[in-house]
């Protein structure tokens, strides 16, 4: 992995990592960085070596969202179409994560604010350093949540807490984020990446098709009724029945041994 560029992509064994690399500006988004993030995610989605993906930030922050100085230039110049394009670029990042056929873990190493917070919330799982914090800071500068925040936050914490987070724009420390459901786990700062890699490797060893379909089930369930999800379960389970991983998993269970799932892509 080269240190050049504002977005770094690497693959180590079965784990892909996308690192935001603008530490001197707390990994805030600048220029084409949003598109570079989406490009990097698409690269990892297509890379069959990477069966699980980690998103993290370099330095002391995960990502503090928009570069406010650049945003100020756009607003002062009444360049609203350019400002709107920044939000649309965020849409591409979020939908790329949602559509990836493999699990994505946010390793939140420090402050995650605004669009940076919602980049983390767009991931399937979130591990937070005990030094991390997360906040919907948009209202502090007169803006509205973007990068999927208006979708993810109410579903994770409920409407009342979501309103509080949006209205007050306060940063929430890691333990509070865990308590209200914004993150899955809090780990010591110095072991964050070790823990993230261990989790990613564990996920990479799981049956890829099963995980892909389960990820899709979670996404669908947020807007579907019971009958629709029951129909999806039948179709998803039938796909699994046809897979070599299901045959291996069932046989391993009967033989009381660990299953050795294949390395075929999730498709």
* Count of distinct structural domains: 2
As laid out across the biggest beta sheet, the strand order is: 1-2-3-4-6-9
Q: How many distinct beta strands?
A: 9
- Overall geometric form: globular
The whole-number mean of residue pLDDT values reads 94
For the record, the CATH class of the largest domain is Alpha Beta
User: Would you list the SSEs in sequence order as H and E?
Assistant: EEHEHHEEHEEHHEHEHHHH
- What does the main sheet amount to? 6 strands, mixed
CA(first)-CA(last) distance? 26 Å
What structural class results from the helix and strand content?
Answer: alpha/beta
Helix percent band: 40-55%
How would you summarize this macromolecular structure in one to three sentences?
This protein is α/β, with parallel strands linked by helices and 267 residues long. It has helices spanning 33-46, 68-76, 80-99, 115-122, 149-157, 159-168, 174-180, 192-204, 208-221, 226-241, 244-254; strands at residues 7-12, 15-20, 52-57, 104-108, 111-113, 125-129, 133-135, 171-173, 185-187. The mean pLDDT is 94.
Task: Summarize the topology.
Layout: E1 7-12, E2 15-20, H1 33-46, E3 52-57, H2 68-76, H3 80-99, E4 104-108, E5 111-113, H4 115-122, E6 125-129, E7 133-135, H5 149-157, H6 159-168, E8 171-173, H7 174-180, E9 185-187, H8 192-204, H9 208-221, H10 226-241, H11 244-254
Parallel strand pairs: 2-3, 3-4, 4-6, 5-7, 6-9
Antiparallel strand pairs: 1-2, 7-8
